[in-house]
Amino acid sequence: MANTKPAKVYTVKDAKPAVLKNKTLAVIGYGSQGHAHALNLKDSGYKVVIGLYPKSKSIDVAKKQGFKVMSTSDAVKEADVIMIAAPDMKQPAIYKADIEPNLSKGKTLIFTHGLAIHSGLIKVPADVNVVMVAPKGPGHTVRSQFLEGKGVPALIAVQQGGKPAKEIALAWANGIGATRAGVIETSFKEETETDLFGEQAVLCGGVSALIKAGFETLVKAGYKPEMAYFECCHELKLIVDLIVQSGIAGMRFSISETAKYGDVTRGPRVVNDKTKKEMEKILKEIQSGKFTKEWVKEYEGGLKNYKKILAAEEKHPIEKVGQRLRSLMPWVAKQNIKGAQASYSAVVEKK
Ligand code: NAP
After folding, report:
1. What is the pTM of this model?
2. Active-site pick, 35, 37, 113, 140
């Protein structure tokens, strides 16, 4: 049943930043999301400590960026509010070993993605608040937008703890800059299922498959791989930027009449009823837990299939031609490096 009721959007005026004042906030993990949340919250005036495992490569980075770095257990003991920003598949083991034994009544545990809680991989005692603050963008963008006075929109959800827990989630979202853009309340179930579906069917899986299929079709028909790369990959960002700025209709305002006619008459032939049926199948696998079961099994089996597929994908001809063409546009390559290394370059710049 389609849900047509507009969702409430929380902005800066709805947050109560004081609920996190005089509290210790711990961020467990200092990767993409962890470093962004920690730095933004510190810049917003909160006391933040970092929890990491003994040999983590991020210990020095976090220290150089001004944080007290502790073992995960000590960080959980010291903190009132704890965000778990470690990889999803590692979270259950970290929780069992270092978080659960150090939780006590009234503490708040924050997730940035609902998977571990929704699929039951982590079960938290009822007297501990469980919430989610999930920015709708990569961690490095959460940091760079904050520094520019902007913000990445985020979702919040409350699994346990009611209104006080929701205020903590909203204050955290505010501290990372998300309320500047807008925060929407969801549930762990809705966030998990839509997030997995979006990345599998559209954002990562769907788009990569579409680009490769277009590239392969042109190359097979005898066109130069360079031409195929420009037409099916390089220009995608320009079109997506227009869509993000002003919607699909707005993008169509900027393209030629010929492009527009081809778009509306040919697009539905590429993504057709068969594609939609497959999307529905993918969604059902997510909703039934089949996907998570498969992913946990693959992870626990040493990621053999995952690594094999990724290695084969990296050898696709589009990667070689793309690398050569991007090297002719140093600004594109530089932006990529800057985006991926924002947290680390800040340290290097200081040296
Ligand atoms: P990530 O970049 O891979 O970083 C994970 C961090 O956890 C690293 O600092 C890692 O240490 C640390 N870590 C690994 N094992 C640990 C342990 N045993 N104890 C403590 N720390 C440990 O992860 P991420 O992509 O930010 O993902 C974190 C969470 O954010 C996930 O739930 C994910 O779904 C969610 N999320 C991510 C994004 C994104 O933009 N990537 C977007 C939305 C939500 P090292 O530094 O030593 O490797």
Report:
1. 0.90
2. 113
